[in-house]
Amino acid sequence: MPISIARVPTERPARYLKQLIAHLGHKATTTMTGTARGTVTTGAGSCALTATPLGLRLVATAADEESLARIQDVVARHLVRFAAQEELIVEWAAPVAGGDLEPVSPLVDEYLLNHCTPADEVLHDLATSTREGAPRSAGMQVAHDEGVLLTMLTKLVGARFAVEVGTFTGYSTLCIARGLAADGRVLTCDTSEEWTALAHPAWEQAGVADRIDLKLAPAIETLRALPADAVIDIAFIDADKEGYRAYYEEIVRRLRPGGLVVLDNVFLGGRVLDPAYQEADHVAMRELNDFIAGDERVESVMLPVRDGVTLARRR
Questions:
Q1: Is 101 within the bounds of a domain?
Q2: Tens-digit pLDDT profile for residues 223-270
Q3: pTM reported for the whole predicted model
């Protein structure tokens, strides 16, 4: 559960940040992004420091509470030492677990859904049939506001060929299909006949079934079977997390310049943010998030939409 935040009021946040990164660079791994953000990583854990108009914001993470206390002490001790002209007070909030974080609170959730284009009858009925036909897995369906985002992104890139990894009951597929150009098509990949069977009536009712090619097979095989020069305009990845990196690679190499790949669940319920979580899915997603942030083939942004959404645009 080791994530802790401290907010340190000061009129010199950038100065102290620069001093700390420079000093600790001799005994720890440090990085500096511009003049406003830096990271210190030791054997105990990591601390991200951000200069804000109100002072320094510190976010410390570690694998356990003992290690968290060590990284907190290192950062706080040095900050206080550098502040010769003022008395800095570093008060750490009680540690929390990544799994207890709530990226979208119920109040924000209600407000979001009340202020985006509402679901029509087809989407409403599909959400209902998913809850009834796959009650234990219904949480895998994208939320309505994320569906609206997918439709909008598909329209914005002028997509004629879209790829989806992870169909489930077809809600996101339908949203993508609705955003395609008039002659567009979406290839969607899944392995479940049971779940995808719930999708077909909705696709027919929405009048987009003729735009959708469903491939029931391991997604990686389907992607690798695409022509090497295939031009993908937009792709959506929402499937098994350990497979994300392989799906991403097969898609990016076929993504046209200006094309977009959208990855869902990049927070994994907040667990990706907490190094105490070390299951295969957590490690795979954590490593992929780091990889995409440094992937020179794309420009990317991670959004706090639902369980975290990354947009990566091919340069």
A1: no
A2: 999 998 879 999 999 999 999 999 999 999 999 999 999 999 999 999
A3: 0.89
Say if CB 32 and CB 53 are below 8 A apart: no
Give the count of domains, the chain: 2
State the Cα–Cα distance between residues 221 and 167, nearest whole angstrom: 15
Does 199 share its domain with 68? no
Q: Exposed/middle/buried for 23, CB within 10 Å: 0-12, 13-18, 19+?
A: middle
- Between CA 16 and CA 19 the distance in angstroms is 5
Residue 14 to residue 211: CA distance in whole angstroms = 52
**Structure-block tokens of residue 256:** 């046209």
SS (H, E, C) 212-261: EEEEECCHHHHHHCCCCCCCEEEEEECCCHHHHHHHHHHHHCCEEEEEEE
> Residue 313: phi, psi to the nearest 5?
-105, 130
Residue 103 binned pLDDT confidence (cut-offs 50, 70, 90): confident
